[in-house]
Amino acid sequence: MYRLILILLFSAFAWADEVQILYASKVKSLYKEGEIKIVGRLLPTAKVEVMERKDGRVLLRIQGYAPKAQRQALYFAPNRRILNAGFSKNAGLSFEVLQTINDSESRSDWELASIALWSEDSDLVAEVAPLYAEANELFTSRCSICHALHPAKEFNANQWGSVIKSMKSRVGFDSDTEQLVVQYLSKNAKDMPKESK
Ligand code: HEC
């Protein structure tokens, strides 16, 4: 009984503190507060934390890895070209560095960093699994029309972007669909999941 009360108390606190986690379902534009100039793009399936909502926009906290002191993009994993978000050059963005790690594979330092930017309050979903299921369905149905399906594990994460780019006109993917399928395949590639160290 005592244990149950503790659990209930704990979950009440957890509830009060709960942040809203969402996932982009399309390629989304990113802005600085009160501006209309696009300073970056958020990729489908990227995980974000909602910090504030105002006038049809949401303030999102985006996290990811970047080579030390070169925060042009935030990646899903160190040394893998899987974008969570990409940013314009000289946008004067301020990142928060959460951790620096030495990646054993690239033998270089990578930072886990985060940034808060605004986006339209749309194309954000609570669950990521349906997005991957949609990507898998598109991939298996469209990419096996002319030849046998090349499985996700046939290529490394960094190769899938160019494979899909070269095939996209054959399947008629628009850019949102292309990015969704690339995310799905890269995250299930031969060299994924990457052991983080
Ligand atoms: C309309 C027919 C068609 C469709 C649909 C198609 N492909 Fe292809 N694919 C080809 C042809 C033809 C080749 C042979 C090489 C070439 O012409 O580029 C090929 C080659 C490939 C290769 C081998 C490339 C290499 O360098 O080994 C891969 C991988 C591939 N396709 C992946 C895909 C994926 C992923 C999709 C779905 C997004 C897809 N294909 C959809 C026609 C198609």
Care to describe what's here?
- By secondary structure, the protein is an alpha+beta fold.
- The protein folds into two domains: 19-125, no CATH class; 129-187, Cytochrome Bc1 Complex, Chain D, domain 2 (Orthogonal Bundle).
- The protein contains four helices and ten strands; from the N terminus they run αββββββββββααα.
- It has helices spanning 2-17, 129-142, 157-171, 175-187, and strands spanning 20-24, 28-30, 40-42, 47-54, 57-67, 73-75, 83-87, 96-103, 108-120, 124-125.
- The strands form two sheets. It has a six-stranded antiparallel sheet with strand order 8-9-5-4-1-10, with no helix packed on it. Strands 2-3-7-6 form a four-stranded antiparallel sheet, with no helix packed on it.
- The protein is globular, with a radius of gyration of 19 Å.
- The model has no long low-confidence stretch (mean pLDDT 92).
- It binds heme C.
- Residues 142-143, 145-147, 150, 163-164, 167, 170-171 line the site of heme C.
The side-by-side strand order for the widest beta sheet comes to 8-9-5-4-1-10
Give the beta-strand count: 10
- Rg, please? 19 Å
Strand content: 25-35%
Which parts are unreliable, with pLDDT below 50 for 5 consecutive residues or more? none
What is the count of distinct domains?
2
Helix percentage: 25-40%
Give the averaged pLDDT, no decimals: 92
Give helix and strand order, one letter per element, not per position: HEEEEEEEEEEHHH
Biggest beta sheet attributes: 6 strands, antiparallel
How far the N terminus sits from the C terminus, by CA atoms, comes to 41 Å
- Can you tell me the overall shape? globular
Class computed from helices, strands and strand pairing: alpha+beta
> Which ligands, by name, code or SMILES, are bound?
heme C
Number of helices: 4
